[in-house]
UniProtKB/TrEMBL annotation:
(6R)-10-formyltetrahydrofolate binds at R64, N106. It comes from Rhodanobacter lycopersici. The active site is at H108 (proton donor). This is Phosphoribosylglycinamide formyltransferase. Pathway: Purine metabolism; IMP biosynthesis via de novo pathway; N(2)-formyl-N(1)-(5-phospho-D-ribosyl)glycinamide from N(1)-(5-phospho-D-ribosyl)glycinamide (10-formyl THF route): step 1/1. The lineage of its organism: Bacteria, Pseudomonadati, Pseudomonadota, Gammaproteobacteria, Lysobacterales. The keyword Transferase applies.
Amino acid sequence: LRIAVLASGRGSNLAALIAARDAGKLPVEFVLVGSDKASAGALRLAEEAGIPTLALNPKSYPDRTAFDRELFARIAASGAELLVLAGFMRVIDGAVVAGWEGRAINIHPSLLPRYPGLHTHRRCLEAGDAEHGASVHYVTAELDGGPVVAQARIPVGANDTETSLAERLLAEEHKLLPAVVGAIASGRLRWNGEAVFDGRPVT
Ligand code: GRF
């Protein structure tokens, strides 16, 4: 399975995918790692792993949609069969995303549908939730709104902070995302107008 990954930051989720592939657990080929930040650590990781990289500067484009169109044209040109958003911090134009329905997933650090958007750990703490978690979902035009195909859960402790939650959750994300990509690579998880996991529709 040929995958392209988009990341805006350090790329720890990308690193987890590469490690799973190197351990022979993930039958994937990385065809591109793209970013909206030329300084993103994810691009350095990709270079070290010999993966083609692409950094597009949003400031070089007249508007957001022009940036998104160029980025997705380059992803298509890479031959990617699956797009993985892993710490990509931009909202993508709905029409551009629509072209990748069923072929793009995102990992989000909350138990969707709780806390779409930003600052999820803080919102979880402020709400006094007993548990927190991460979700992998298919990307649709609705921000963090597509069908959730898998989640990881962690308990929230009385002494937890945003930082301690984020760290504990990241360790779970690094297992969850490779597991979902593996399910897609093996055909267990697929899209035929809706997400189907082991033969059962996922809403
Ligand atoms: C992670 O919390 C992930 O859930 C979110 O971005 C954060 C950083 O990811 N999407 P990474 O370390 O850059 O992979």
